Structures are given as C-alpha cells and as structure tokens.
Amino acid sequence: MQSGELAADISADNMLILGKVSGVYGVKGWVKLFSFTEPREGILDYKNCFLKRPGAKSGEQWQPLQITQGRKQGKGVVAKVDGCDDRDQAMLLIGSEIAINKDQLAELAENEYYWKDLIGMAVINQDDVDLGKVTNLMETGANDVLIVEGDRERLIPFTQGMAVLEVNLDEKLIRVDWDPEF
Q1: Would you give the DSSP letter of residue 42?
Q2: Which of 57, 121, 129, 137 is the most exposed place for a label (fewest CB within 10 A)?
Q3: Cα–Cα distance between 96 and 93 in angstroms, integer?
Q4: Which of 111, 102, 97 is nearest to 19 (CA)?
C-alpha cells in the first residue's frame, strides 16, 4: 500500500500518536524520531502512517506519510521519509507528530490491552468502592502500574488475577483487589 492509498478515518479522535520528529540525521533527508512506542523502534513497524505539522489548522491536520527505512540509532530511532531527500526538507518536519489510525493496531490476545484503552477507565475495588479513574500507566520492569486519580493518587500494579480482578472494556471499568486506604 502506498502512502497515497492509505484510506482511513483521519479524524483527531481516531488517531493514535506514536511519536514526534525531534531532529535531523545527516544530509540525505533522514529524521530523528522520539518514539512513544515500546520498544522505541516499534514506531518503524508502521510504514504507512500520518504526519501533523506543528501549528496545523484543523482542516489540514493529518497528511499520509510513508517511512521507507529506519533503524535504532543509539538510544533513539532514525528514519527516512518518502519525499524527504535533503536536510532542508527534513528540517521542516521537526516538531511534527507521527500517528496511525487506531484501526491499524494489531489485534491483541485475550486479556491483553493497549494502554490507550485503559486510560480513562473507572477503577473500583471488590467492595464497589470508587477509587477513581486511570490517568496514565507506567512501566516498572516487573509489571505495568495503573496511575489512578480519585480522592488521591493511587499506584496499582497491573497484575491480572492478583491486583486486577477484571477489565471490562465495554463498561469502561476495572475491578481491583485493593484496599482504599492504601
């Protein structure tokens, strides 16, 4: 599929931002990417994506973008973008967001979730005490952690079958085994 053939709902609500163009790399049109994916080079899995330049108005927001080459470079990622052939063209992309249509995400196995699906969900414990809403997640190495904002901030390990008893995407509800005083 060529970038011009990428048919998708490019409304702001249907876009998932994967990273940003953070700089230029060399003189042949390569750019440095600040990737929000895990692992960082996961952004390169999406060759056909969309670009929004800084300050773009609502009618001109997302433009098709094709990443033709890319690799991990030190602690970052560098990529070659179709149609960007020199350093001056690459400079014009700095600060641009790179996104995909949510429909491009891979199907997950049962009991696997994208973080974007968990953010905003209500969290209650097994006694139906409202603990708040998931505002973010963080990776700790051992497991991911839900950041839940309610009467106060709580950090709840995302350990299914232990702290997390149920995730109901339809009801936007996570049931946890968690003491509200903790």
Answers
A1: G
A2: 57
A3: 6
A4: 97
Using alpha carbons, select from 179, 177, 128, 123 the residue that is nearest to residue 146: 123
- Is the pLDDT assigned to residue 6 strictly greater than 50? no
Is residue 47 located within the same domain as residue 131?
no
Q: Can you list the pairs that 66-75 forms with residues at least 24 positions away whose Cβ atoms lie under 8 Å?
A: 66/2, 66/3, 70/33, 70/41, 70/43, 70/44, 71/41, 71/44, 72/40, 72/41, 73/25, 73/32, 75/40
**Which H or E element spans position 38?**
none
Q: Which long-range contacts (CB under 8 A, 24 or more apart) does 34-39 make?
A: 34/76, 35/76, 35/77, 38/139
Q: What is the model's pTM?
A: 0.70
| 182 within a domain of the structure (yes/no) | no
What's the rounded Cα separation, in Å, for the pair 65 and 105?
Answer: 17
The count of domains in the chain is 2
138 and 146 in contact (C-beta within 8 Å)? Answer: no
